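Quick check before the chapter quiz. The format below is the same one you will see on the exam, so make sure you can read both the input and the output lines.
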Amino acid sequence: MPIKKSRSAHLIAVTPRGWTTRASLGLLITMSLCLMVMSQTGNSSAVKIRTTLLDIITPVIEVASKPLDAIASAGEWVGEMAQLRAENIALKNTNIQLLQWQALAKSMEAENNSLRSLMNAVSISKNNYITARIVTDMGGPYVRSALIGGGTAQGIKKDQAVISEHGLVGRVVETGNATSRILLLNDINSRIPVMSETSREKTILVGNNNELPSLSYVSSDSAIKVGERIITSGDGGVFPRGIAVGIVSKIENGTIRIQPFVDATRLEYISVVDYSL
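Here is the expected output.
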């Protein structure tokens, strides 16, 4: 029958191969023992044969070990890349906080100029920072909001300020357990209490769905000039005071346009400011 013939043929084909392998292994073991005995007696022929075999076997061993070395190197590389990524994220978070402190220091310097006559001024605010990753594309021309990978489980709440290492990004408008939506400064629904860093005039930054939001409720005798920095005023107790917002880029027909410090299309990570008085 065809099936039985096939199985018999398979057994016949395998058996000689198995005996050949065993015979070769036995021969190698026997030769090795003979060479060991002959080399112990100082036989020059045995030494020459042994060195010749070593010359032949050594390159084979080196070639065979290269894939294993490559696998080991690849494993080490993957581990190093994972560690570098973790370190990079940690450094980004630290950099965001340090640059924010730098912006606050500049604001405090300007504020101190107007408070030199006062003594024992004590700051009672405390800020914590919750870092999250942006999970939606912010490169579209009509995109004025974004989702971030963090929510109430991480301590994020509605109306908290969202910053990057360069300044204010926007504010939190919706929160879920693990995600939140942030409204950018240039959204038409955005309203941020701000003030000029030099003249200390308080106004409202209003979004208008274009790249340059404007200042509203500006007095007719305003001293705000082109090139002046705009920072958060802290009015209303929602945002901390002194977050860098942007710079006055132009003043036309009484309208003051602000160039934000943050380019939202280039963001990957942000920090949410957990602000408490």
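If your answer matched, good. Confidence is low (pLDDT under 50) at residues 1-21, 117-124.
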